[in-house]
Design goal:
Blueprint lengths: L1 E8 L3 H21 L1 E9 L16 E2 L3 H4 L4 E6 L7 H10 L3 E4 L2 H6 L1 H10 L4 E2 L10 H6 L7 E7 L2 H13 L3 H10 L8 H4 L2 H15 L18 H9 L2 E12 L2 E12 L11 E8 L3 E8 L3 H19 L4
Parallel strand pairs: 1-2, 1-4, 2-3, 4-5, 5-6
Antiparallel strand pairs: 7-8, 7-10, 8-9, 10-11
Helix pairs in contact: 1-12, 3-5, 7-8
Bound molecules: L-homoserine.
């Protein structure tokens, strides 16, 4: 059995979900892969906050040098969120020879080339499956099984918080503020939920998908973006009467070699597959020139589904570095 030690930076909802996922399935992962995966360090200031997991207090540190300077730590999982210090920490981790896994869509979308270049220059792996679609393994599919394709269209529901809110408003007639609060309690929402409800979170995810699918960079600020704060109960009712539901839709396609893209609420006919995607579930429709139409579906937010994608990346890296794949 090979032991691979990792560090988690940031022990909020997603850090806890990742730790909990590993605690639950450590032995199953070891059985399947031959790797004994251990969390050696957690970078976190708030060590006393009640959490559903209880790492030994000695694991916590407030000093990144304890992580970057520890030769035993092979993989750093960045779950601080936000642009800084997350981006600098990821690059510093790479410079220290650590492989990096993150769920931080804002940092990736804003600093895509910088992070990719840092990984290349420092000969380390950089993985970010959890940044788009939570637990749905869509980035891995785009970069592996679907690699032979030229992508023609990307269409999806890519934010669990807003889909949860719209579903509950539509199906339960519940008020916006009450449902947003529940989405926050369930760990779906960003630390500042403005990013969710104003569509910026989806724009970050769409920017990443455009980079991977079309090989073109579209900055988040260049994606026309509308959130759900302007969607009224009356509009939802009106859509219902017409056999439609309102969904926050991300879309991108190529037109004459240029990317056309947008994020915004759209009325989707009930007969459309995206209409049935409810609550925190996400779905991504991809059209490739060889494969044709594909659709990915699963939980797009929440500590455990997101933790599942993070652990998948960590395990994949661990297998690479141990020469087990
Ligand atoms: N706040 C995000 C969402 C988390 O609700 O989808 C997952 O990226």
């Amino acid at each position: 059995m090979k032991t691979v030690k990792i560090a988690i930076m940031g022990f909020g909802n997603i850090g806890v979900g990742t730790y909990q996922g590993l605690e639950t399935n450590h032995d199953a992962i070891a059985e399947k892969t031959g790797i004994d995966l251990r969390v050696k360090r957690i970078l976190e200031i708030d060590v006393d906050r009640p959490r559903p997991v209880n790492p030994d207090k000695s694991v916590y540190t407030q000093n990144v040098a304890d992580i970057f300077g520890d030769p035993e730590i092979a993989v750093v999982v960045e779950l601080l969120g936000g642009l800084e210090p997350a981006t600098t920490f990821m690059i510093d981790a790479m410079k220290a020879g650590k492989h990096v896994v993150t769920a931080n869509k804002a940092a990736i979308a804003a600093n895509y080339e910088k992070l990719m270049d840092a990984a290349k220059e420092n000969h380390v792996l950089f993985r970010f499956e959890a940044s788009v679609g939570g637990g749905i393994p869509v980035l891995t599919a785009i970069q592996n099984a679907l690699l032979a394709n030229r992508f023609e269209e990307v269409l999806g529901i890519l934010n669990g918080t807003t889909n949860f809110i719209l579903t509950q408003m539509t199906e339960g007639g519940r008020p916006y503020a009450e449902v947003l609060k529940e989405a926050q309690e369930k760990g779906f929402a960003e630390a500042d939920p403005t990013a969710d409800v104003e569509g910026y979170d989806v724009a970050n995810k769409l920017s990443i998908l455009i980079s991977l699918c079309f090989g073109k960079r579209v900055k988040v600020e260049d994606i026309p973006t509308v959130g759900i704060t302007g969607v009224t109960a009356a509009e939802i009712e009106d859509a219902k009467k017409n056999g439609e539901v309102i969904k926050l839709i991300a879309s991108a396609h190529l037109k004459d070699g240029a990317v056309e893209c947008s994020v915004g609420p759209q009325r989707v006919p009930l007969s459309h597959p995206l209409a049935g995607v409810s609550n925190e579930f996400n779905a991504l429709y991809l059209k490739g020139n060889i494969v044709g139409e594909t659709m990915f579906y699963g939980k797009g937010a929440g500590p455990l589904p997101t933790g599942s994608a993070i652990l998948g990346d960590v395990i994949d890296i661990a297998r690479h570095i141990e020469g087990l794949r």
